[in-house]
Write a structure and sequence with these properties.
With 564 residues, the chain is an alpha/beta fold. It has a six-stranded mixed beta sheet with strand order 1-8-3-4-2-7, sandwiched between helices. A two-stranded antiparallel sheet has the order 5-6. Helix 10 packs across helix 11. The longest helix is centred in the middle third of the chain and has 21 residues.
Length: 564
């Protein structure tokens, strides 16, 4: 890198979209990701700046930010290391404006979008900006070509996200441009071309450009850890293999979606590090994962793709294969209802193993959900949760028996006792626990036959009201001490498939059954239908009901040590 020349200069947009630059987005770069919020904000800022002075000759320069290129000083080809979002959105805006201005302006804008071939210079007709190969055909057909934007409203189910962002931003910008008079559109065109500046930082080698890219990222540009890791990992693969491995990377990112793909890297880090993150994800991923799997092709083949496939199955409860698929997906559904995702690294570690058949997965998930539910009920904090799952991962890595009594996947006798004790306490008062426990209990009572996904809302209601009216039957059937004891316990709670009605919740028992529970929970949950079948609601009924429910949960989560 010694002696590498780095150039930085301000250029207007009109100077950038000329024959001096032929921009390409390298295949290892992130997809286009700006949303309508960011594209709309850029348009609003440009429009406001163009209106700031009465005459454009008096206009102040507007700085749009910086771009980082790998570019030889004397050649036009320029690989965009940073700045794809701005350059792409500018091209979308210029393409939209081309369709909404006078023919003279439109012809001039066309030269900012396409370079005309020159036989003397031996150049061909080509777009001034080329996106990644998988998106370029779409970008050229529907954005850069003069007739393309008019076709956008007829497109349906546009995928992947990068193309959908192009469509959404083009339609937004078209609507905003259409609100302007022709003279103001052309004034905006002139302002963008002559008074809007980008700082162009260029160097002839990737290493220097990437170092600049990293510094800019640390100062807050719109990049993610997966973008940087992609640049690092794909960039070290020999050119002959880069296309194939870039396509594999992009496929996994598109399959999961950008946000979930970023989450995956945090979970992979945990699989390898087995400890709570102490530093940045970038630093820890390099140290914990890439130092152990330094070969980029091996990382993609043996780590990224298997874990990505496992992550998709685990988070979408979409396992297929083997006689236990339905039971496996039910357990995954329960795990995904938890208030944390700390259980995911052990799950994807198990699912990514080629030897894991449906019987192995079912047994593992049964114990993983048992452990996760127990920690939820006992309100184990994140530090202790991550430490526990880290020990599970360590046992998995070293092939130790996960089903032995001393395994970290199993609950100790003390943990079983504490779990059952929490279930026998005032479950309702712990917001994040009560719905999970009650749905799990209801499912167990129905032998797993009830589905809760199709209900838009499920709420938890008290049978014995929290604040019964003075002189009501509730105050006769229960003493104040009995009410205080039972009101928030499992036996007194039911599920409703709609919001609670605070007025109806104080009805007398018979009225509440027929006018509230029956109407609001049809078809009824098992817990609720049991109440409908009861003639009275007394401390004795609750005592019996509590015992039965605790026994069901004890059997479900194998709390034998606590029950014995």
């Amino acid at each position: 890198m010694a002696g590498t020349k780095i150039q930085a200069a301000e250029h207007t947009v009109g100077e950038i979209f000329t024959d001096a630059y032929h921009f390409t987005i390298p295949r290892y770069q992130r997809p286009y990701a700006w949303t309508t919020e960011q594209a709309g904000e850029m348009f609003d800022d440009l429009l406001a700046a163009s209106r700031a002075k009465d005459s454009l000759t008096e206009a102040d320069p507007y700085f749009l930010g910086s771009i980082v290129l790998v570019k030889d000083e004397k050649a036009a080809p320029a690989a965009v290391i940073d700045g794809q979002q701005r350059l792409t959105t500018l091209t979308v805006l210029i393409s939209v404006l081309r369709d909404c201005v006078s023919p003279g302006f439109a012809a001039s804008l066309e030269t900012r979008i396409f370079q005309k071939g020159d036989p003397i210079k031996q150049t061909a007709d080509q777009p001034r900006l080329r996106l990644r190969d998988e998106d370029q055909w779409f970008f050229e057909k529907y954005i850069q070509e003069p007739s393309g934007i008019g076709l956008l409203p007829s497109l349906a189910d546009v995928t992947p996200d990068s193309r959908l962002r192009l469509v959404e931003n083009a339609l937004l910008l078209k609507a905003q441009v259409n609100d302007l008079e022709t003279t103001e559109r052309e004034r905006l065109v002139s302002f963008i071309d002559q008074h809007t500046y980008l700082v162009v930082v260029s160097t002839a080698d990737f290493e220097s450009a990437y170092r600049i890219f990293t510094v800019l990222n640390e100062r807050g540009l719109d990049l993610t850890h997966t973008d940087i890791l992609k640049s690092e990992i794909i960039g070290t693969i020999p050119d002959i293999d880069q296309d194939a491995y870039t396509n594999r990377w992009v496929k996994e990112e598109n399959d999961l979606g950008r946000n979930a793909f970023g989450d995956l890297f945090s979970h992979i880090r945990m699989v390898y590090a087995k400890t709570k993150a102490r530093g940045s994800i970038l630093k820890e991923f390099r140290t914990s994962v890439l130092q152990r799997v330094p070969d980029s092709k091996t990382f993609i083949d043996d780590v990224l793709v298997p874990f990505s496939n496992a992550f998709e199955v685990v988070t979408r409860a979409s396992y297929v294969g083997g006689p236990d698929a339905e039971a496996i997906n039910r357990l995954l559904g329960w795990l995904n209802q938890l208030d944390n995702t700390d259980w995911i690294p052990p799950a994807i570690s198990c699912f990514s193993r080629p030897t894991a058949d449906s019987a192995i997965l079912l047994r593992f998930l049964g114990d993983l959900e048992r452990l996760a539910a127990s920690m939820l009920i006992r309100r184990v904090d994140i530090t202790r949760r991550v430490e526990r799952y880290g020990r599970v991962l360590d046992w998995m890595e070293h092939g130790r028996d996960l089903y032995s009594a001393e395994s970290p996947l199993q609950l100790s006798a003390a943990e079983q006792t504490e779990t059952l004790g929490k279930l026998d306490a005032e479950v309702y008062t712990v917001l994040r626990v009560r719905l999970y426990v009650l749905e799990r209990l209801d499912s167990a009572l129905s032998d797993g036959g009830t589905s809760y996904d199709h209900y838009p809302l499920i709420s938890v209601e008290h049978v014995l009201p929290q604040n019964p009216a003075v002189g009501s039957g509730w105050t006769t059937a229960f003493t104040a001490q009995e009410r205080a004891y039972w009101v928030h316990r499992l036996a007194n709670l039911v599920l409703l498939s709609k919001r609670k009605n605070s007025q109806a919740s104080n009805f007398e028992f018979e009225v509440k059954k027929t006018k509230y529970f029956e109407k609001t929970s049809w078809p009824p949950f098992v817990l609720t239908s049991q109440v409908l079948a009861s003639d009275v609601w007394t401390p004795a009924v609750l005592e019996e009901r509590q015992g039965i429910q605790l026994k069901v949960l004890s059997d479900l989560w194998r709390l034998e040590a606590a029950a014995s």
